[in-house]
Design a protein that fits this description.
four-stranded parallel beta sheet; 20% strand; 103 residues; alpha/beta
Amino acid sequence: MKVLIFLPESKIGGPYISHKRIIESSLSQKITFLPFYYPRNRKMISFSFLKKLKQTIKNFDPDLIHLDGLMLSGFLQILACKLCTKKPIVLAVHGSTLETNIK
């Protein structure tokens, strides 16, 4: 199985660390993870990004696409993937330390 996994170009933050750990885990013995580094939000709203994503999906031909969150970047990733392919998409939803202070 091949999984196209989205990682931020900035290489910082919780989703990056979480997805990097998935790529480096024992799962990589059974699954081929294909990293796709996405740019900042405003650059994802462009034809050049959609063209790059579409070409990447075509070249890698993944069985699944793994995205990284519900913030604006996650929304833009879903939108771009829906425009570029009919491949199945998995969206990772991570908690936040803000949730621990809910009363």
